[in-house]
Amino acid sequence: MNRIGLICRYLKENPHSSQRDLAQKMELSLGTVNTLIKECMNLHYIAPGKSIAGTYELTCEGETFLNQFKVDGALILAAGFGSRFVPLTFETPKGLLEVFGERMIERQIRQLREAGVENITIAVGYLKEKFEYLIDKYNVTLLYNPEYSCKNTLATIYHARKALYGKNMYILSSDNWLRENMFHKYECGAWYASTYMEGKTSEWVLSYNKKGRITDVTVGGENAWVMYGPVYFSREFSAEFLPELEKEYETPGTEQFYWENVLIHHFDRFEIDINRQPANQIYEFENLEELRRFDSRYQTRSNNEALELIAKVFRVPESEIHDLRCLKSGMTNKSFLFQIDGKSYICRIPGPGTGLLINRREEAEVYRTIQPLGISDRLIYISGDTGYKISRYYDGARNSEAFNWNDMRACMKVLHQLHESGLTVDHSFDIRERILFYEHLCLQHGGIPFEDYQNVRAQMIELLDQLDSMNRPKVLSHIDANADNFLILKDGSVRLIDWEYAGMCDPLIDLSMAGIYSYYKEEDLEKLMEIYFGRIPDNTERLVVYSYVALGGFLWSLWAVYKASLGEEFGEYTIIQYRYAKAYYRKVKERYCLQGI
């Protein structure tokens, strides 16, 4: 840190300051400040105060010298999801959450503007449209990080690097809350803000020398200064640091790196100082529980639909909903865990646009119908209107494993129990209707990209006609009975969850759907059929299962194409499902000629 520059900055901001004022502000001894004052006066950067004895003021030469340290702007990182703040961040990016009635990112923008920093860039990704209003309100620039969902902040800085090269820039996190304004119009060297943590901490602990230069970082420690909050990149620092960051970005295995990982790997090459901040100045809220303790409004009313629903269903205030934790989002929904009175539950929030694809009233009917079987998740609440669902969470349970045949035996017993229950609902799962439905959606949203689609479509119609001619039985079927939807409980019992697509259908469709979800090869599918039937399947059974493999692959490939048109990508899943359609049509045609067996 350039101490001459700091003397000039302080006198710029606080004219007519004494040596004692400077020593207190800069946390230096009076002797050190006296030496710096003499040096500044010799350089004609400062002069004795004309109106108040014992004080100093900045000269024109000092103003000119200080200009090299002028802050050019700020980059605010706001691309991430904020998984530890679910369910709030399902609807709102973390930086847009309010603390004491003011959004965290807006508080930082306001503080920057008060300090004279005008050029502000916000790196966005998740729910990027939510930040658009800031362009009009504060004249900020939005910069999109296309890798926000699969990489960490190293990638964010990489995509924003052109905004940093050759400039003096603050690097801020949108979800920090700063009590006092710690920004300045001038900064005299690169720094990382730090807070003192008493007791044990898992934060990144800083080591630094007498001049405040950071010399090392370790993960975790005790009674230590830690990396915490804003950062400042001088143009000189960026010139050295960004080329190394670019190299790390191109290196395989760094996808989940923070940008700070680059700093840690090369501390011997970079000069960056610690900027120690007082207690209760910088806040990085780790979860909703911390935010509740800080802003009591969140104890009673979060303005979040899911939390308000849970409070209503359980007849408790929101403050009694604890230990919220994000579950891995499924292909259609978002879910999170929570606890009330020491018991764990799951709340499912329907994914965007699922109301068009899934009839929630029919799903609710299925859950009511199957309750006597005791094979599903234990339902607490379900809405046929909104699709919100609350169920008990089974501690210690695990998903079944598709290639663990002992697991599959237990799962197939549950399917038999369903298929042989005699239970009925008033709706069917008509795979022909669903194929035509998704085809229509795809054609309305950019078309279908497969070059041979019309030919494959004709083949699927052949299979549908063949199945119709067989007058297959219809029973209550799950439709999505894949390995991830079977839970193996601690006592070895099995529960089948996620009944969104369930309806009256040919029961053998459940075997086919299970196979294609788990990317089964033909020999795996054969094994699954043997487990289900308790014997080698006959030709008719194999024909039906293979036909539904082809039709299921065709259906879900259309589903994935439609979802991609809405911005949701499922990688290789689309192609794999389409390959099932083509490959198993050929198997049916070659073995059964589509005209009897």
Automatic annotation (TrEMBL):
MF GO annotations: kinase activity; nucleotidyltransferase activity
Pfam families (UniProt xref): APH, HTH_24, NTP_transferase
Residue ranges of every copy of the Aminoglycoside phosphotransferase domain listed in the record: 327-523
Keyword terms: Kinase, Nucleotidyltransferase, Transferase
Nucleotidyl transferase domain mapped to chain residues: 74-181
Protein name: Phosphocholine cytidylyltransferase/choline kinase family protein
The species this protein was found in: Brotaphodocola catenula
